[in-house]
Amino acid sequence: MRDESGTVVWESPDTTRAAFGGDDRSRRVAAEVTSTLGTVLPGGRPAALRTGEAEHGNSPDNQDAWAVGYTPQLVTAVWVGSDDERRLKDASGRKLTGDVVPADIWRAFMTNAHQGLPVRPAPGGSRPGR
Questions:
Q1: Which of 21, 35, 54, 105 is the most exposed place for a label (fewest CB within 10 A)?
Q2: Kind and range of the H or E run holding 52
Q3: Which stretches of sequence are listed as region Disordered (predicted)?
């Protein structure tokens, strides 16, 4: 993670592990999460041009906006906000929400991160927007 000047402020350890196990209960939970998130993507907007799910939002006072989503290979969250409680606005002065800047950052990151990775089906066979 980098701050506004580009300085690295946190770096993830280079380890990975599955969020869900291979047992039936884990598969059911993963399928339910996929199904739930799939309903917020009308029209089946893909994550990184592949099967995936995403959600976005912002705080009631509009000081935070976020987007989070996953494919079978990667989970990513993007937060946009300030530490001095300023309300978020885009370049034209309109309210900035999670479905704009954070979602655009998330989509660009996921597309780049998935270059060369195989397309894998979502848990339970769900498709975005279903």
A1: 21
A2: none
A3: 1-21, 38-64
